Amino acid sequence: MSQFLSNCSVDALATAAQSLKEGSLVAFPTETVYGLGADATNAQAVARIYEVKGRPADHPLIVHIADLKYLDQWISDIPEYAIALAREFWPGPMTLILQRSELANNFITGGQNTVGIRIPDNLLALGLLEAFQNLGGAGIAAPSANRFGQVSPTTAEAVQEELGNYLSDTDLVLDGGPSVVGVESTIIDCTGELPRILRPGAVTIEMIEEVSGLKVSDSTDKKSDVFKQKDIRVSGSLENHYAPKAKVILDQQPVVGSGYIGLESISTPDGVIRLAAPESVEEYARVLYSALREGDHQNLEVIYIDQPTGDGLAIAIRDRLSRSAKGR
Ligand code: TXA
Ligand code: MG
Questions:
Q1: Are the C-beta atoms of residues 156 and 176 closer than 8 Å to each other?
Q2: If we measure between CA atoms, which residue out of 320, 151, 173 comes closest to residue 245?
């Protein structure tokens, strides 16, 4: 059983940074979802991430850093448009895929020539990263802190529920309250002439096009050829992912006794257990994963979900839900 730190003082962050330096795992909050962190230069520590998550070893990890000044050491090249995106959206819910440096080992990149980098927008995460970097750390590798294929945690309690049985005494879980965005970062491949979205998130196509001045392709669009390429290993892009134990059914009339998630403007269908009634698309993203977990806590067999329509963040929500609905 790991230690659970809810009082994250500067001292607690220094202790957590020291644990990372010694090769332990530290789960920490970010604005998107909670991450399971390890020293990104420590092969054994990173191997434990895969073990604890039950994740196949060839899936690459995102390296988290505290500031743009730590970016250069991880990469060998960066296009102008990626610099513009980094300046505009970091710290924030965006991961850039860039040509790696030698520091980004195969055990981080899954053997690819690229590395995913992100500066998260969460004070606790940034405090931890800063403390770790003050101890000489280069970056924290962190996937979402869930078992492979399951729903990402947006609270420290959900991390404990997912991974408590797999973490050891020297590992830590930092509690920073609920994640404010609620879905994972937008992943943008910046190795080509044009930015390409590999996973939609809160940094939207419109935002990327406006800042880069370029046309953005969305490889999560199933019609796109890019999506069919086998060399892009975005584990979150597997068809069955983000799945609760309950069966998820999208945009259909709910059966009595089932769970139900939909915007507040849709009145609760007769005889269902309402798990969430978000008032906006932003709130929808924020509460979605905890609502799916709540359905599992209530042992519901089926959760019916009316998806949000439109562009922007709604695209990310529908992306995750379409995978949840494929089941395990
Ligand atoms: O919001 C987030 O991104 C969260 C928080 C903790 O930062 N992290 C997260 O990590 O969602 P993870 O490992 O659950 O999902 C990251 C995705 C994976 O699907 C992985 O395959 C992809 O990023 N990825 C990482 N490095 C990559 C690379 N070099 N090329 C292509 N995909 C990459
Ligand atoms: Mg994940």
A1: yes
A2: 151
Query: For ligand 1, what atom is nearest to the CA of residue 181?
Result: 1
Q: Give 61-78 as a DSSP string.
A: -EEE-SSGGGTGGGEEE-
* Ligand 1 geometric centre to CA of 317 (Å): 17
| Tokens read off for 128 | 């931890």
Query: What pTM value is reported for the model?
Result: 0.94
**Environment of ion ligand 2 (residues, CB < 5 A):** 144
Decide: 62 in ligand 1 pocket, CB within 6 A: yes
Residues 304, 272: contact at Cβ < 8 Å?
Answer: yes
Bond before 91 cis per omega within 30 degrees: yes
* 204-254 pLDDT per residue, tens: 999 999 999 999 987 765 544 444 444 444 545 555 678 899 999 999 999
For ligand 1, mutation pick of 184, 199, 289 (most atoms within 8 Å of CB): 184
Closest Cα partner for 108 from 54, 53, 51, 43?
43
Length of the chain: 328
